[in-house]
Amino acid sequence: MQVEAESDAMVGEHSVSEDPSSQSAMQFGEYKDSLVATISQHLDLKHHCTSSAAYRIADLGCFVGPHTLDAMRTITEAVKDKYKAGGGQSSGTPEFFVYFNDRVTNDFNALFAKFPEDRQYFAAGVPGSFHGRLFPKASLDFVYCSKAVHWLSKVPEEELTDPNSPAYNPDRISYINAPTAVCDAYLGQFTKEMESLLSARAQELVHGGLMVLVIPGRANGTQYPSWSQVFMALEPILLDLAKEGMVSKNKVDLFNVPMYFPSPEELKNIIQKAEGFEIVELSTFTRISFPVFPTEVLRGAYGGLLTKHFGTEVAEQAFDRYEKEIPTLRLRNPAEGNGLFIYVTIKFNKS
């Protein structure tokens, strides 16, 4: 998960050590079979034809939770199976090199400490934003990015905080339930960042390389997913703190969550305009059951954002009230609402 603010930062005595965005380990099992099928059906090994060259994989926005390790095991095993099935020109299988990427504040040592003893790949941490270049030209065979690109590196601040802007967004902390101009501003920022991500990967992927993105999103024709109630519950709490004088109303009006949940159609339009990329698979799934969403998970996802903007005292007050008022907040199953996850496989064809 990548955001400009330190989303996994300590908030008082609180912290989380797992991926906070959406209980990833549980969710990975929902699309593990899709990932294996993607490699079996779409991975072209003609451009990686010898077992002497390492097969290079990048996980963008890896964080420190178990999800990334499960995913890398699945990907490497599926590529091995592809070779054994005759997909490569060599009967052997290559060595694997996995690059774990996240922002510079990510605790890579915590991730490395969780490596399984039977790890079948070489590994390195690569700090930095995936919206820019991270790797040498034509150095990656496979790119994986799960539940990270919906986090924006920044919000369109000039539009959202200018009282003279049609996208001025007072009394709200996101584009949810906001006027169309606010939604358009968020979409514009998401589009710019996706274009930057794709442009960088176009330099780094080999011809025929694959990129798999898993993105929390919403159904076409809707404004936001049903599970947005999780962080939207903070909105009235922050407004109450402003009324009580704990924080200025202007400070609340200047706070906007850097997150956008795209629709499949929006994502498709962005990728189709990117030179060299071809969508070979785009599907959605909603069969995820969410248990109680613990306050600790919310702290992990948004604690750094609130602390950076409001300070530790206000952040603590906000989460304490959240915990008291909504102790057992449950997410609706996306199948009952308009929330979904977008699974897209993109192939890079160098012109």
TrEMBL record:
Listed cofactors: Mg(2+)
Leader sequence segment: none
Pathway field: Alkaloid biosynthesis
GO molecular function: metal ion binding; methyltransferase activity
Keywords from the named record: Magnesium, Metal-binding, Methyltransferase, Transferase
InterPro entries from the UniProt entry: MeTrfase_7 (IPR005299), MeTrfase_capping (IPR042086), SAM-dependent_MTases_sf (IPR029063)
One GO BP annotation of this record: methylation
Gene3D superfamilies: Methyltransferase, alpha-helical capping domain, Vaccinia Virus protein VP39
Region called Disordered, residue ranges: 1-23
Homology family: Belongs to the methyltransferase superfamily. Type-7 methyltransferase family.
Protein known as: Methyltransferase type 11 domain-containing protein
Species the sequence originates in: Coffea canephora (Robusta coffee)
